């Protein structure tokens, strides 16, 4: 009779082939959670001692062994194998090598199903804190930059056509708002992540008199799952995370798209620092916005991580299914991608130069002040619809004559409408156009200054 050497090999008479073993193994990626797994085991054994399920000296031996494994892990001295399938079985087998058969008592009243869920909650909780911090750091750079550019004018766009002049700070503060919503979503995500599944065991709870609240407290969780089936089969907290990551990356990607566009020869609104640009191997003149393109591109893989897990989950009956093993790589990938993208984006934004002269030129050589003229006429009593028509015709005439509204003579203006006086030129000035838009949330300088002050206070 062929033997099976797996930790679970008792009821087996044969081994899977190496190929099958390797197909089923997750150790090549779940070793990322080695520290969390040891942390979870330490809390579990502390609970087993606290409740008297294990004798004090046995629990102490296991605890000491786990501490040794922690030290070895930190020193890069733990060696994992495919034969031991995943991080949980690998660490149990390493613990056995360390302290002998008493290691076998650690798994009392526990299953790999609640163990892996615990590891993932710990891992994600930790990284959610990092990501929240990184979002705040980026917001600080956005607000700082906005503060320096309250008076910098730029064309505001709709349909990628010059629409109305705005302040560059106003543009930046829109991204501050988006990032704030990202922050709020990740913070809410923490609520569902900060919950202990430990003690759900395989699916139904356990006959041992465990204390789930005690182990949860050891791990710093503020809450425990109330249903053991849900505890081992819930991946909503990861789906929420991936969805939040997808939205954050979409925001960064839009921002990157504008940076890439505005850094072109055609726009020349800004220039990236050399430290965030790359050259070409053939064209000596090139300075490419690779980092912005890469962040835009990485948005695709994070969407993929979300779609991947949604699809894995859609047909799964309660409770644990091996399909769940497919939940990890996407989560790790999204964590790494988002942390790196936030870090690179922050540096790139912080160091780019805004070409204020070019932006100013763009706002004074266009028709984005046409609304001002229509508003001017409307404020003097002409129905807005009529004013709109009149200005539209004037714009067309100007285009044909290769000039802008500011170049039209007062005589021509007065021929157009006797309502127009010399103060029209003041109204047409883009700076006036921006300054006067002081409706709540508008681009007016006073509004922006208020928004920046509020953001600064919130970021404290
Ligand atoms: N490697 C497994 C996973 O990632 C751990 C849980 C295994 N549980 C089981 N009943 N086979 O999902």
If you had to describe this structure to a student in words, what would you say it looks like?
With 460 residues, this protein is mainly alpha-helical. The chain folds into three domains: 9-108, Fumarase C, Chain B, domain 1; 113-208 and 220-359, Fumarase/aspartase (Central domain) (Fumarase C, Chain A, domain 2, Up-down Bundle); 362-459, Ribonucleotide Reductase Protein R1, domain 1 (Orthogonal Bundle), CATH 1.10.40. It contains 19 helices and six strands. It has helices at 18-24, 27-30, 34-50, 56-74, 87-99, 112-148, 168-193, 212-218, 228-233, 236-262, 290-313, 328-351, 356-364, 370-379, 384-400, 410-416, 424-428, 430-435, 445-459, and strands at residues 153-158, 161-167, 195-196, 223-224, 270-271, 353-354. The strands form three sheets. The protein has a two-stranded antiparallel ribbon. A two-stranded parallel sheet has the order 3-4. A two-stranded antiparallel sheet has the order 5-6. Strand 3 (195-196), helix 8 and strand 4 form a beta-alpha-beta unit. Helix 7 runs parallel beside helix 19. The radius of gyration is 31 Å and the shape is elongated. The N and C termini lie far apart (69 Å). 39% of the residues are buried.
């Amino acid at each position: 009779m062929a033997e099976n050497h797996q930790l679970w090999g008792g009821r087996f008479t044969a081994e899977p082939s190496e190929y099958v073993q390797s197909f089923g193994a997750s150790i090549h990626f779940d070793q990322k959670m080695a520290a969390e797994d040891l942390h979870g085991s330490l809390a579990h054994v502390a609970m087993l001692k606290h409740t008297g399920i294990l004798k004090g000296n046995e629990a102490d031996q296991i605890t000491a062994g786990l501490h040794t494994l922690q030290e070895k892990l930190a020193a890069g001295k733990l060696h994992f194998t495919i034969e031991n399938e995943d991080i949980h079985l690998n660490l149990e087998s390493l613990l056995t090598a360390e302290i002998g058969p008493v290691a076998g008592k650690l798994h009392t009243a526990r299953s790999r199903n609640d163990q892996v869920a615990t590891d993932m909650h710990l891992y994600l909780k930790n990284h959610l804190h990092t990501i929240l911090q990184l979002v705040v750091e980026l917001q600080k750079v956005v607000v700082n930059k906005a503060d320096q550019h309250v008076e910098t004018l730029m064309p505001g766009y709709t349909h990628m056509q010059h629409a109305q002049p705005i302040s560059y700070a106003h543009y930046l503060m829109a991204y501050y708002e988006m990032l704030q919503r990202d922050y709020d979503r990740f913070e809410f995500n923490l609520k569902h992540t900060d919950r202990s599944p430990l003690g759900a065991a395989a699916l139904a709870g356990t006959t041992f008199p465990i204390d789930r609240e005690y182990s949860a407290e050891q791990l710093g969780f503020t809450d425990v799952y109330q249903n053991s089936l849900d505890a081992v089969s819930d991946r909503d907290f990861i789906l929420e995370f991936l969805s939040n990551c997808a939205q954050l990356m979409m925001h960064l990607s839009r921002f990157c798209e504008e940076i890439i566009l505005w850094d072109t020869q055609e726009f020349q609104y800004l220039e990236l620092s050399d430290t965030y640009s790359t050259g070409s191997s053939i064209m000596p003149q090139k300075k490419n916005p690779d980092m912005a393109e890469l962040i835009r591109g990485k948005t695709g893989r994070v969407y993929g991580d979300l779609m991947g897990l949604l699809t894995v989950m859609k047909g799964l009956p309660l409770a644990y299914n091996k399909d769940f093993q497919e939940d990890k790589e996407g989560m790790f990938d999204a964590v790494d991608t988002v942390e790196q993208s936030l870090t690179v984006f922050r540096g790139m934004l912080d160091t780019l130069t805004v070409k204020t002269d070019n932006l100013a030129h763009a706002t004074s050589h266009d028709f984005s002040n046409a609304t001002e003229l229509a508003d001017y006429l409307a404020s003097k009593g002409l129905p807005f619809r009529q004013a709109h028509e009149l200005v539209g015709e004037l714009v067309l005439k100007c285009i044909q004559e290769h000039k802008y509204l500011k170049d039209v003579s007062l005589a021509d203006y007065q021929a157009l409408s006797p309502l127009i006086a010399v103060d029209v030129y003041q109204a047409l000035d883009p700076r006036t156009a921006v300054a006067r838009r002081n409706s709540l949330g508008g681009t007016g300088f006073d509004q922006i200054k208020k928004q920046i002050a509020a953001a600064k206070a919130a970021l404290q």
